[in-house]
Amino acid sequence: MPVATQPFPTDLARSECITLKEAAELLGVASVNPVLRLAERGQLTIYSPVLGTARLVRRADVERLTA
Q: How far apart are the first and last CA of the chain?
């Protein structure tokens, strides 16, 4: 099942976000698949700033999961 992406919120700065690959690195996993599973379970929200560009997550949300 594909993970739904949310529109990029207007109150969110791009600098607050990281790519799925960067999120995987912060989580210490080798691929983005665990990041996608976290999104499927509702633990992360994936944003798409512009159609066709990299999907993003909030850095703070990923860091919360590593604490």
A: 28
